[in-house]
């Protein structure tokens, strides 16, 4: 140790005046909130998944992995899990593609661009349950706006009962989820596009690059970090999108639109089976964790190069 | 001195954080199910009138959609914050007793009030203890378009389901007008199937000699016959609205109100809805049909008000019930929801001498209720899936109900 430093008289300072201690102190409320509202529920869900519970979710008996074994033996659990993955892949792909297209269009300077940007954000600005309820009315076979429009314009003389059959109900739910999710993607991509230096495009144009070449070799690589983060967030939200399905179809007809999150709700709060519901929540957590880790690996790998 | 002052001030603030200040109002939360026909003015007035008459109590009437009530209660119970009082479907009582959250209501109510309740409405009396106070006893009716029936030379409501089919075939004119309404979208209750099942002398469970429930019997001849008939209405004769799996009970009711249905099987409350919405067509009502050669066993549904064991203000909650069960308030409630009164004194009032209420009383003879078992919510869901799978052509009625019965027995054994 530096002798001079050791021999220096110690100055007594109040503990909150040292920078690091103060930082910890200021972080304490946030840490407490995270422990109480994030860590504790997660740990409790893991515990619950290993226990037999009573009908209000109190842990009664340790049953190891019985809840998981029962779950994995049920065909409907696998159907719902696979459907959740399909739902997420389709919805996120559509949101990304459409969101990116809208962002590219809004990035071009044209008259009325501000108005267009405002209009794009509208579906995201309104509350999801309200939007879902509006769509429920829109899809109504007898009195809904969609079928009315299709009929009077002659586009479809006998439109279907959108929410009455498995495939159309799934597509109808998917459409609403995409409709609600597009503005977020478009805005994030737009922000990403605006950070691309214009001189790169100018240089490319001077070299005679086509529109597609500029997009593929400049826009896409520079947008990659934003694309990764936005699609990851969208995956997490879409996989857990409860509102749309619960309001439009409640998982029906005959569970054909149930995804893991609605199934968990049904088991926990309709059937009072908190053990299997917690086991499903753990499975959902594991799927999303793997996805997030993959994304993180991909993200940092691309950062490195 | 300064320190002492500071400590004294801190101590005086503690009760504000952790305790109820002396003289604070006693809070009573009441989950009121939103019955069709029940207007906000009614329960807002009730809330206000009670609070004015009882300045020491702060009553909060919280309206809850019927379809969400069960799940909302479960969430509140699991979260350790149930209301003091709530309307419940009486068939949920066993589930709540099983959880251990029910406060037997009888001991908090006056003898006058208990004696004034129609005995037939006391479905929540178990082992001679009244656990919950009846709030509504709902017989079910067949409503029909009397003007359209007349046009087709049909004299009155069908007595049997077979007659109902014949009449429906006569008046059916899709896509403008459908013979019979059918709901195939999952709802909190399984009423549609119950009408046909009970009308075919069937039931959900075998009844053991001691009165307890045995194995599920929805897949017996009566059950399969009932579902086959329903499916024939939908897919063979096509006398219902199309896409039945997209319609809840409420949406089928909307179709009838909008003049697109000839017949509907629904709660007696539809009478109030039709009047409130001022429909211009002519309609009438009759008893729920039965199958030819079978006895009539209509469905009888009762709802009750339950007090939660965790309530901190049971006395205040009971005081509210005594207030609510005065003739004046009960008359208003029964008029709004269109059910026969659960209070004897209200039943004697001139309003309830109208013909429809006489029919309601008659319809209760031979009626059967929902099974009182703790797992009913899940059984309900499983049978709904069987019905939906049949309507969608995924399974035959026999296959669907065999699977449902097996699953229900499995659940009950768990």
N to C succession of SSEs of chain A: HHEEHHHHHHHHHHH
Count of DSSP H/I helices of chain B: 17
Structural class of chain A: mainly alpha
Helical proportion of chain B, percent range: 40-55%
The average pLDDT value of chain B, as a whole number, equals 90
Rg calculated over all Cα atoms of chain A: 26 Å
Q: Using a beta-carbon cutoff below 8 angstroms, give the protein chain pair with the largest interface and the number of residues from each chain.
A: A-B, 29 and 35 residues
Report on the architecture of this protein:
The complex is a heterodimer of chains A (305) and B (414). By secondary structure, chain A is mainly alpha-helical. Chain A has a single domain, classed as MetI-like fold. Helices cover 73% and strands 2% of the residues of chain A. Chain A contains 13 helices and two strands; from the N terminus they run ααββααααααααααα. In chain A, strands 1-2 form a two-stranded antiparallel sheet. The longest helix of chain A is centred in the N-terminal third of the chain and has 32 residues. Chain B is α+β, with helices and mostly antiparallel strands and 414 residues long. Chain B folds into two domains: 199 residues, D-Maltodextrin-Binding Protein, domain 2 (3-Layer(aba) Sandwich), CATH 3.40.190; 206 residues, D-Maltodextrin-Binding Protein, domain 2 (3-Layer(aba) Sandwich), CATH 3.40.190. In chain B, the strands form three sheets. In chain B, strands 1, 2, 3, 4, 7, 8, 11, 12 and 13 form a nine-stranded mixed beta sheet that branches. Chain B has a two-stranded antiparallel ribbon with strand order 5-6. A two-stranded antiparallel ribbon of chain B has the order 9-10. In chain B, 47% of the residues are buried. Classes of the chains: A mainly alpha (305), B alpha+beta (414). Chains A and B meet through helix 12 of A and helix 3, helix 4, helix 10 and helix 16 of B.
């Amino acid at each position: 140790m530096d002798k001079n430093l050791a021999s220096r008289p110690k100055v007594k300072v109040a503990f909150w005046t040292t920078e690091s201690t103060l930082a910890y102190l200021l972080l304490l409320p946030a840490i407490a909130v995270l422990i109480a509202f994030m860590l504790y529920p997660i740990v409790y869900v893991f515990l619950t998944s290993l226990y037999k519970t009573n009908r209000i979710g109190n842990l009664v008996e340790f049953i190891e992995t019985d809840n998981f074994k029962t779950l994995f033996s049920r065909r409907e659990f696998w159907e719902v899990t696979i459907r959740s993955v399909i739902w997420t892949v389709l919805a996120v792909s559509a949101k990304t593609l459409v969101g990116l297209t809208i962002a590219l269009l809004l990035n071009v300077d044209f008259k009325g661009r501000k108005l267009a940007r405002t209009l794009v954000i509208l579906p995201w600005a309104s509350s999801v349950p309200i939007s879902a309820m509006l769509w429920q009315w829109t899809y109504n076979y007898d009195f809904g706006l969609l079928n009315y429009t299709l009929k009077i314009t002659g586009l479809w003389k006998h439109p279907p009962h959108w929410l009455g059959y498995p495939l159309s109900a799934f597509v109808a739910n998917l459409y609403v989820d995409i409709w609600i999710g597009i503005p977020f993607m478009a805005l994030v991509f737009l922000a990403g596009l605006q950070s691309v230096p214009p001189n790169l495009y100018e240089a490319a144009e001077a070299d005679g690059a086509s529109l597609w070449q500029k997009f593929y070799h400049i826009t896409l690589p520079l947008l990659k970090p934003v694309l990764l983060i936005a699609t990851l967030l969208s995956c997490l939200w879409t996989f857990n999108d409860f509102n749309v399905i619960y309001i439009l179809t409640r998982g029906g007809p005959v569970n054909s639109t149930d995804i893991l999150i609605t199934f968990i709700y049904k088991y926990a709060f309709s059937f009072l089976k908190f053990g299997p519901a917690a086991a499903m929540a753990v499975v959902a957590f594991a799927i999303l964790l793997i996805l997030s880790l993959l994304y993180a690996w991909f993200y940092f790998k691309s950062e490195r190069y | 001195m300064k320190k002492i002052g500071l400590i004294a001030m801190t101590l005086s603030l503690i009760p504000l954080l952790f305790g109820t200040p002396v003289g604070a109002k006693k809070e009573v939360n009441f989950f009121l199910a939103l019955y069709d026909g029940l207007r906000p003015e009614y329960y807002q007035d009730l809330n206000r009138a009670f609070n004015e008459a009882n300045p020491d109590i702060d009553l909060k009437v919280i309206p809850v959609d019927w379809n969400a009530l069960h799940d909302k209660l479960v969430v509140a119970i699991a979260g350790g914050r149930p209301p003091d009082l709530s309307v419940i479907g009486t068939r949920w009582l066993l589930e709540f007793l099983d959880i251990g959250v029910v406060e037997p209501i009888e001991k908090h109510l006056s003898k006058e009030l208990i004696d004034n309740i129609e005995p037939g409405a006391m479905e929540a009396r178990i082992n001679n203890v009244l656990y919950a106070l009846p709030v509504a006893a709902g017989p079910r009716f067949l409503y029909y378009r009397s003007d359209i029936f007349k046009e087709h030379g049909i004299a009155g409501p069908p007595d049997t389901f077979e007659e109902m089919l014949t009449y429906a075939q006569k008046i059916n004119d899709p896509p403008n007008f459908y013979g019979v309404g059918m709901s195939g979208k999952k709802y909190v209750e399984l009423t549609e199937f119950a009408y046909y099942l009970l009308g075919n002398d069937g039931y959900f469970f075998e009844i053991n000699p001691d009165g307890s429930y045995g194995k599920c019997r929805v897949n017996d001849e009566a059950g399969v016959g009932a579902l086959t008939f329903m499916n024939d209405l939908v897919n063979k004769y096509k006398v219902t609205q199309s896409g039945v799996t997209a319609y809840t009970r409420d949406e089928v009711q909307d179709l009838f109100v909008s003049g697109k249905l000839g017949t509907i099987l629904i709660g007696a409350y539809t009478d109030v809805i039709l009047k409130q919405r001022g429909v211009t067509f002519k309609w009438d009502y009759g008893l729920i049909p039965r199958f030819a050669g079978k006895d009539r066993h209509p469905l009888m549904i009762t709802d009750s008000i339950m007090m939660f064991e965790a309530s901190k203000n049971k006395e205040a909650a009971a005081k509210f019930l005594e207030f609510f069960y005065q003739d004046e308030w009960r008359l208003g409630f029964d008029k709004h929801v269109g059910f026969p009164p659960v209070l004897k004194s209200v039943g004697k009032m001139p309003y309830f001498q109208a013909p429809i209420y006489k029919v309601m009383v008659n319809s209760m003879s031979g009626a059967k209720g929902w099974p009182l078992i703790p797992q009913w919510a899940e059984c309900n869901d499983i049978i709904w899936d069987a019905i939906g799978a049949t309507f969608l052509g995924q399974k035959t009625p026999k296959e669907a109900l065999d699977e449902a019965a097996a699953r229900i027995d499995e659940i009950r054994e768990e």
